[in-house]
User: Fold this.
Amino acid sequence: MWRTLDRSLLRGIVLACLAVGAIGVSYGAVCVTAGLPMWFPVLAAFLVLAASSEFLFVGVISAGGSPVAAVLVALLVNARHLPYGLAIPPRVIQPGWRRVVASHLMNDESVVLALGQPDVPRQRSAYWVCGVGILICWPAGALLGALAGNVIHDTDALGLDAMFPAVILALMLPALRERKMRRAALVGAAVALAATPFLPSGLPVLLALGAVFLNATPAEQGKAP
Assistant:
């Protein structure tokens, strides 16, 4: 696996993991300042491993919402993993127990990096190395943030939440050289922006996924559910 990782791919994985760890600091601090125990963000970061849904869960709880509503909102946001799982080639996620572990490691960064590689060996290496790196960095950042939560009272002032979309955009830039990919990305962004004022959090992003059909051939569109 390590032989297929060149310097540029390894640099992208390291930067993605460091950015996720930095966002984890903000997440841990938000949890502690919201009144949650210090162990909660670390345990949730390891077991859930989905930053956006965890942030939403804490936001709903801190705003006085019920745990059931918080879980439903988090699951709605995590529904984007359904097309992720369909997009990853089967040979990247091998059958058996590896597929169970790989499904837990599935996140925005590992999927984007894997799909950006030209062959299956590099896709497999990017997916697994990035997934394991985030499994380490996300809980570690949450732990640091939880420890610093009593000191950092205004976590929004740090601007750490801006790192996540910035990293995803940087990982997507090579794919945007293709005309069809640029068209799908622009249409998806327009759909999400237009729907944001009217729909709950999470739904605009799911609607934007409809833009992927712009890249499908007529035969593929006929097979779409």
Notes: The radius of gyration is 18 Å. The chain has twelve helices and no strands. Residues 178-225 form one domain.
